[in-house]
Here is the input.
Amino acid sequence: MNFESLGLHPLVLKAVTDAGYTEATAVQQQALPAAIAGRDLLVSSQTGSGKTAAFMLPALHKFASAPAAPAPAKTANQVAQSARSRGERTRFTPAMPKMLVLTPTRELALQVTTATDKYGIHIRRVKAVSILGGMPYPKQMQLLSRNPEILVATPGRLIDHMESGKIDFSQLEILVLDEADRMLDMGFVDDIELIISKTPESRQTMLFSATLDGMVGNMARRITKDPMMIQIAGSSTRHENIQQRVHFVDDLSHKNRLLDHLLRDSSIDQAVVFTATKRDADTIADRLNIAGFAAAALHGDMHQGARNRTLNSLRQGQLRVLVATDVAARGIDVPAITHVFNYDLPKFPEDYVHRIGRTGRAGRQGLAISLVNHAEGVHVKRIERFTKQIIPVDIIEGFEPKKKASASAPSSRRAGWRPGDGRTDTRSAKPATKPGQRTFVKPSAPRKDSAGFRGDRNQRGDTGRG
Ligand code: AMP
Here is the structure.
């Protein structure tokens, strides 16, 4: 399906053409006609599937098609300024957005705002701003005083502004919950309910989530009216364009040496290395810098300004390796990321899916490599059960684990892989007996030692407030 056939407003269509999109993605094919018709949507689709355009293009189409409101004689800012110049105390005029997008993290919110700017570039009268935790209040007040049509926000900070009368949702027409399952996991359920209670019943609601089961399904049913259900490819977790591998390691020193070796692969354009802790992210980034890699850390303890600078360096290609924790890395959309490394496995299989989704964006190829202690074989199994995919075990000569990997005899031998062509990796395209050769072996049955890892999302301690 191409975009012309959807009847999008010409200014939206022009932006889509500028972005180089020719065909709607699977989620867009189903979501766009229904959303343009004003229907509520419940969508389960994988990260990187083009879901932002699936909700933003219909919204921009609606705003561009509406007759322009008569311009006020003075902006809220000008009114306040002239009142101040007369020595009068002023009351902040609340922003009255037409659209609200709620996201679990700041990074995803910024990503959505950037995409909105791209898709709305030709519609002068539509402004989008992000309201995020960590951003200075005066800056946010300034953004709100422009009365933007579109707000993209994390729930915690948004509530602060609502409670102090800076935002009024009585004119809201469209509400989007992006990565709704994640927001609930992070403990935002009460905040979301409160925000929704301040919006008109007449709104259009679109909810995007990895899963529509359980708690998120209950909420979805409560907040939508006759929604269209869209489930892309049955499973939201397959990432078929991303090759996955596991390397077993004996100890930390083995893991560090192997990471260093793997990062020297010339087929890497940019890579993200995931760690379990903020401290490890800092330590590994420092170590990689000393070893000559252009690396930097990204985690929740960094100020928003520093996080933005790091992400910009990544987008501009100045950084080759980003070492990140889960919360910080969510929503990163940088097409040049060819490799994802799990230095530590994530706590939850869902997070594994989100992590590896940082590569293979928009139909490209990607490679995801997990460095796993022998005791963590069971965690790999849990991920495999969740994604319904076997992750081959890879061994590189010179880096073999001393302890026999929790794997059986070699089950498959692949010619290797290179981003872009999905096939050749020069270092592994030799016979298995030669130095540097990789051998793929099938993981064996799970082991009993499952310390530290839980598949139950309810046990997550992370509330990661905006
Ligand atoms: P999203 O899932 O919204 O984060 O989008 C993932 C990536 O897909 C982004 O880099 C988008 O620019 C890109 N994208 C979205 N829609 C299309 C499309 N129809 N054709 C090509 N790329 C797209």
User: Anything to note?
Assistant: The longest helix spans residues 51-65. Residues 21, 23-25, 28, 48-53, 333, 361-362 surround adenosine monophosphate (CB under 6 Å).
